[in-house]
């Protein structure tokens, strides 16, 4: 039977939704147990949140001032030490997980399985390749532990209602001192986080300018949605690049995605493959976005968005 250890992703004392998505993926293994490990200077608050995820047996905490910042080279030896007792070690396929999990895999002497979107067996997984245009089945060696990143867009968050035991996990490993935290340069926004928002409104080159993007922000506010953008809009300087959705941007799976003035290039569609309802607004009735949209509105966005806003009010 499988025993799964999930590495919790958290920032500023809050658990990221990616952790509950990893729990969903772990549940697909029908394992004997699922544990979550929280590494932090003071892990109590995050651990209490993690303990509420249904299906989790234990939340292990590793309190260490060296874990105040998520430095992969510092955290990986601690996770590898704990991971030796598990058949599977999962982390999210986010920037955090993509940085950390290959280090964990290397320390455990295995190859990492990346971007798990489906589980076929204890060592058999499906993942997308070529920007989501093909799906491959990956077989991990049966006699080794599996270290994997979980494609968060492919899994729902596991529910709440759990009451896992929270236990301090003593980890006695030498931590590298050659890597130090210098600072984090992150965009600040009061809006919902693009990667975990249930609704997203994205604007493309058709919006025309940074000033015009106000119409996208206003409409998103009406819906309580996060704002995204196509690469063309980012490259043109309409919005910062952390809003980019797609192959070289963020892969997202909101319940509602509204694409405004976006043509629907394959590299953009890769980022919204797992979205629920897709609404497209474009003045070109032949735009490829309409081939995948559930609801398509052909017309000028500057006319249609105010009309939709009025209808919502
Ligand atoms: C390696 C690689 C990686 C890439 N990664 C990404 C990625 O991650 N994300 C991404 O988005 N792209 C990515 N691209 C770029 C991608 O190929 C497209 O160029 C880009 O998505 C186009 O953006 P767009 O739809 O906003 O612009 P366009 O293709 O120019 O489309 C603009 C649309 O707006 C419509 N429009 C114009 N005015 C109005 C109006 N007034 N009202 C309504 N509609 C209007 C037009 O009809 C048109 O369909 C990548 C490309 C490469 C080569």
UniProtKB/TrEMBL annotation:
<dbReference type="InterPro" id="IPR014729">
    <property type="entry name" value="Rossmann-like_a/b/a_fold"/>
</dbReference>
<feature type="domain" description="Electron transfer flavoprotein alpha/beta-subunit N-terminal">
    <location>
        <begin position="4"/>
        <end position="179"/>
    </location>
</feature>
<comment type="similarity">
    <text>Belongs to the ETF alpha-subunit/FixB family.</text>
</comment>
<dbReference type="InterPro" id="IPR018206">
    <property type="entry name" value="ETF_asu_C_CS"/>
</dbReference>
<protein>
    <submittedName>
        <fullName>Electron transfer flavoprotein subunit alpha/FixB family protein</fullName>
    </submittedName>
</protein>
<dbReference type="InterPro" id="IPR001308">
    <property type="entry name" value="ETF_a/FixB"/>
</dbReference>
<keyword id="KW-0813">Transport</keyword>
<dbReference type="InterPro" id="IPR029035">
    <property type="entry name" value="DHS-like_NAD/FAD-binding_dom"/>
</dbReference>
<dbReference type="InterPro" id="IPR014731">
    <property type="entry name" value="ETF_asu_C"/>
</dbReference>
<keyword id="KW-0274">FAD</keyword>
<keyword id="KW-0249">Electron transport</keyword>
<dbReference type="InterPro" id="IPR033947">
    <property type="entry name" value="ETF_alpha_N"/>
</dbReference>
<keyword id="KW-0285">Flavoprotein</keyword>
<dbReference type="Pfam" id="PF01012">
    <property type="entry name" value="ETF"/>
</dbReference>
<dbReference type="Pfam" id="PF00766">
    <property type="entry name" value="ETF_alpha"/>
</dbReference>
<dbReference type="InterPro" id="IPR014730">
    <property type="entry name" value="ETF_a/b_N"/>
</dbReference>
